[in-house]
Design brief:
Number of domains: 2
Number of strands: 3
CATH class of the largest domain: Mainly Alpha
Oligomer: single chain
Structural class: mainly alpha
Strand content: 5-15%
Number of helices: 13
Shape: elongated
Radius of gyration: 26 Å
Distance between the termini: 83 Å
Strand order of the largest sheet: 1-3-2
């Protein structure tokens, strides 16, 4: 037996031996200081070389595919901090001035009033929170998932998509529950963000791997996340579910409308590397703010 593969690490040597032995090739190794050398018969040299070449190429392809389906993120979005500050100000200002309870009654998501045409409640309810714990949980959720959405779609489109997923989630919840309930909190939009990210991940996996069971793994992960975030005594689970499903639908619509962009998600959104013209992002962000202001003025 002779040395044919030299100066390998211990892990590399173990991998080579495992591959060769699985193919019926008798091999061993020798240690030279801190490196390892693979020894095998002269008659097996050519076959071993071809097998290892194929194995290393396959491993490299798997690594590249894994990298391709990762959703790269940028955490430098002033928009997410604007949203977090706005929600905090609404909560603390209303409590400090003693009208928090009235605000919840006037603007919370109630099926009784939404079904009578007060659709503004489906938006305003997203801005209200029961207590500090409720607020803190949603701020963390928005920071994690909202920032990811903004990173991949742009802060303008992203903010509008989050708002719409929360709005339609609350509307659907009201029409299906039809009960005397009052629901508040940004968690419907948080789950909407999770749905959007699920859609983007599915689209990326479909692009890199084709349609298979693995393509829909993000959906299973999203549903698991839905269950994890829907615990708690006073949690409106159905609102979370509809927020997630509407986020998924909006995310799918986004991937279909922006196919060229979602095909190359290595170009993330940031202040220096915008996915679209900044004026377009400002327009979408402005539309989101106008909807919120109009909702608090009860225009729809």
């Amino acid at each position: 037996m002779q040395n044919y593969f030299h100066e390998l690490s211990e892990n590399q040597a173990d991998f080579v031996l495992l591959v060769l032995e699985s193919q019926g090739i008798n091999a061993d190794y020798t240690k030279d200081n801190n490196s390892f050398n693979i020894i095998l018969n002269e008659t097996d040299k050519e076959k071993a070389g071809q097998i290892l070449k194929e194995q290393f190429a396959e491993a490299r392809d798997r690594r590249e595919k894994y990298k391709a389906i990762q959703l790269p993120l940028s955490w430098k979005s002033p928009m997410i901090f604007t949203i977090l500050i706005m929600l905090s100000l609404i909560h603390f200002y209303s409590i400090y001035n003693g009208f928090h309870g009235d605000l919840v009654r006037e603007y919370g998501a109630s099926a009784l009033y939404i079904l009578q045409g007060e659709y503004f409640r489906a938006v305003t309810a997203l801005m209200l929170h029961a207590d500090l714990e409720h607020l803190a949980g949603n701020l963390v959720g928005l920071f994690v998932f909202g920032t990811a959405v903004f990173s991949l779609t742009g802060y303008g489109r992203g903010s509008l998509m989050l708002l719409l997923s929360g709005f339609f989630g609350n509307i659907t919840n009201a029409y299906l529950k039809k009960g005397l309930y009052l629901s508040i909190g940004a968690s419907t939009s948080v789950l909407g963000a999770a749905g959007i990210l699920t859609a983007l991940q599915i689209a990326k996996r479909k692009k890199t791997s084709g349609i298979s069971m693995d393509t829909f793994t993000p959906f299973a992960a999203g549903m698991a996340l839905l269950g994890f975030l829907s615990g708690g005594e006073n949690t409106d689970i159905s609102a979370h579910l509809f927020g997630f499903l509407w986020g998924l639908a909006i995310g799918i619509a986004y991937t279909m409308a922006n196919k060229n962009k979602t095909d190359d998600m290595s170009n993330t959104y940031s202040s220096n590397n915008s996915r679209d013209d900044s004026s377009t992002e400002i327009l979408y962000a402005s539309i989101s703010m106008i909807i919120i202001i109009a909702a608090f003025m009860k225009y729809f």
